[in-house]
Amino acid sequence: MRPVACQDGAMSEVWDNITTAQADPSVRVVIGTAVAALLLIAWRPVWRHTRQVVTIAHEGAHGLIAALVGRKLAGIRLHSDTSGVTVSRGHPTGPGMIAVLLAGYPGPALFGLGAAFVLSRGYPVALLWGLLLLLVLLLLQIRNLFGLWSVVAFGTLVFAVSWWGSEQVQSGFAQLLTWFLLLAAPRAVLELQHSRRGGGGRNSDADQLRRLTGVPALLWVGFFGLLTLACLALGVVWSGVLPD
User: Fold this and answer.
1) pLDDT per position in the chain (244 positions), as tens?
2) How far is residue 16 from each of residues 12, 20, 26, measured CA to CA in Å?
3) Cα gap 232→226, rounded to integer Å
4) Where are the alpha helices (DSSP H) in 43-166?
5) Side-chain half-sphere of 107: how many Cα atoms within 13 Å?
6) Which residue ranges run through the membrane (predicted)?
7) Is the pTM for the entire model greater than 0.85?
């Protein structure tokens, strides 16, 4: 019976960590994790790999909204070039399809903003375990081997920090991930427009929205950019780095 008792004790400790608010991190830690996240985004050799986290959030947002509007989610694929595709079945036009297409590029920023809100309340461990739950749900929809590997690898990292990390490590990792999502989302929008200007991206979310709504794709790109920047600005306010 001892192993069972030990397991129960460990789970009880995890639950206490999830439901107990932590003290706010120092401004130095918040700024340090923001700088580290910016380096992960700005340094191109690293960005080629870390951008996969943005793709996971992007396609996850498509899938989440597809489920919420009543479309049948047929699967998600993540590719090694950091592209991805979410397939859902339903009416090919109309508000539901528009909502699904709208979700992708703002998705990482909105997830980051939600994370910033949770951190502002002092619950980094709850944030990490909530993220793990979302990754498990996403994993059920993955339909290719690379996508499976990507989600499992990212989930393993989050689990390791959540289970074995100290309180400081958990808080710092949650801060880093939040800043990464908030800062990476605008860069992804810039890359979208760069691809479109180069003749690519004709099947991008913005171009599909143009075909569905008649609104120029450039305006949709601008909307994505403004929304991601607004999320970043509000995330900065919630982070506590600005003077009162």
Assistant:
1) 455 555 666 677 778 888 888 989 999 999 999 999 999 999 999 999 999 999 999 999 999 999 999 999 999 999 999 999 999 999 999 999 999 999 999 999 999 999 999 999 999 999 999 999 999 999 999 999 999 999 999 999 999 999 999 999 999 999 999 999 999 999 999 999 999 988 776 789 999 999 999 999 999 999 999 999 999 999 999 998 887 6
2) 6, 6, 23
3) 10
4) 44-68, 95-103, 106-120, 124-139, 145-164
5) 22
6) 25-43, 98-117, 123-140, 147-166, 217-241
7) yes
